[in-house]
Amino acid sequence: MSKCPICTSKKILPLIKLNGYDVLRCKDCYLTFVEPLPSNSELETFYQGFMFQKPEDYEIRRKIKDKKKELIKLFQLEGDEKSLSEKKFLDFGAGTGIAYKAAKELGMECFYQDLDNEAKKFTIENFGLQSTHIIDNIDDFDEKFDFIFSDNVIEHVKDPKAFLEKLLKKLNKGGVLIIKTPHSANTETYFNPMISVVKYFFLSLKYNSFGKTVRGFFLRFWHCDPPRHLYSFSKDSFDCLVENSEDKEINHRIEYYRSAWFSNTITKRFFTRDKKASLVKSILVRIVVWPVIFVEVILQILQKLLLSLQVLSPGGIILKVYK
């Protein structure tokens, strides 16, 4: 019988089947998870190049600027800029290295970890990443860090408990660990049809009947799509994860984040489209896309309004751990 990998409860609700996996939800801590787990070799093959999305040249500077603001807010660095040169920062699951570069510009000594060789190569070529600051296996690395940042990584790993313990062992006393991830069963995603409908609803139809897909849609199984995402966390599941940690000298808090305006929308793709497209193609795209843009604008405004009124649950959750 299935049991929750975080709180060990046996009160499990089956949600949907995807790609040969069962997507389940714990009724006690509200963790969404998959069974069975993919093998290590399957995951390693799956991720090589899959997650790498090269930023456009015009986007890079803006992304770094935005990420610097985010890191200052998350780690509460305001007014502490002068002492940052003495701090060590680890971007764990760093991808294209935007957070790595942002922290470096804030004055910290920065280290990079990611499995994707294409992303690693991009960071070396564009942000001056040195081999001495690349971590392949954190267990073999002797350094400890004052700040560890892991953005949308924990949902990909097979063992969240081991993942947390691994990072806590590398955190200096007085240090801060930030883990960002999609929020389990959030209602904000309903207002982004490119994710809720195009991505998850249609994906589910490939493996389930229409009735089971509709049921899964209303149970909000999204952000758990094996072998990519293996877990989706709630406040209760994060609380349980930290409270059961081997490290008893830590405390934590939970925060939430909303999706950015027009993220993962046709509207955003339209306004960042290929500027070299032919005139005929541009006209045809405008004719087809403008009605969709109108609908997306209405949904985005309604989404932000309902979030501000706390009617919707935000799409992302943040675990902050203090040592």
Automatic annotation (TrEMBL):
Q: Which Pfam families match?
A: Methyltransf_23
**MF-aspect GO terms:** methyltransferase activity
Annotated InterPro entries:
SAM-dependent_MTases_sf
Annotated GO biological process: methylation
| Annotated keywords | Membrane, Methyltransferase, Transferase, Transmembrane, Transmembrane helix
Q: Where are the transmembrane segments?
A: 283-302
PANTHER family, A to Z: METHYLTRANSFERASE TYPE 11, TRANS-ACONITATE 2-METHYLTRANSFERASE-RELATED
Q: What is the official name of this protein in its record?
A: Methyltransferase family protein
Q: Which organism is it from?
A: Flagellimonas meridianipacifica
